[in-house]
Amino acid sequence: MSRLKVFPDAASLYAAAAEEVLARALDSIRQHDRFTFMLAGGSTPQGLYSLLAHDFHERFPWAKTHFFWGDERHVRPDHPESNYKMAWDAMLSRVAVPQENIHRIETEGGDPQQIAHKYSALLRDFFGVLEGEFPRLDLVLLGLGTDGHTASLFPATSALHETRQLMVANWVQKLNSVRFTMTVPLLNQAAYIVFMVQGQEKAPVLQAVLEGEIHSEGLPAQLIRPVHGHLLWLADEQAASLCQFR
Ligand code: 6PG
Predict the structure, then answer these.
(1) Atom from ligand 1 closest to the CA of residue 152
(2) pTM exceeding the 0.90 threshold for the entire prediction
(3) Domain-embedded: residue 185
(4) Ligand 1 test: best mutation among 146, 150, 238, most atoms within 8 Å of CB?
(5) What is the CATH number of the domain that holds 26?
(6) Which DSSP category does 217 fall into?
């Protein structure tokens, strides 16, 4: 089941996303005493991360939350483009989260394939699943690129067709670089998937992904369809301005 909720501006979008993350956290902890949260990169989630660290600081169950990354750039963790660094600066460095709850993608050293295999192994170990099985994350947070990509699942790239691995090194020709990305079957096992989409420049792609024809090779975000979970789209008025059904 997929729903779109539209908010008047970015601030109310972040506030709603923060409430949603908190609700998912408390619910997961009630059910199995921990919360597994996959973070997104890009600029949109930054406002959410800052809000969680600031206004939600006291209410959020940091000690029982485990943080994972859905995608990463092939840069060191202190590089300005690192998704880990963004989440660290905006949120994780400001709250009392145990170091062992932060499961970043270790991008330094090794070739890209090894880095992806290592993170797949980390996920299997943490969730106690065998090779070929897919763990169930409690919450996956995603963004949407103007070209229809999500996580680092870019149009017409090999990662879109991955059926067995949890994380792959995905060559993205237009960026002339490798991106590490969780795969579609792993993302689709999540209990909740929340997309955050903000700004006028996202209006055409949001409309195409939600209301256009299915064209998943060109619009990878259309591949995100939880198998037994919930899918929620949170957008601001500008991003949703071309959507008919809301
Ligand atoms: C990344 C992402 C990516 C992002 C979208 C939207 O590392 O870049 O995880 O999928 O969410 O590109 O990014 P913005 O929020 O910056 O528009």
Answers:
(1) 10
(2) yes
(3) no
(4) 150
(5) 3.40.50.1360
(6) T
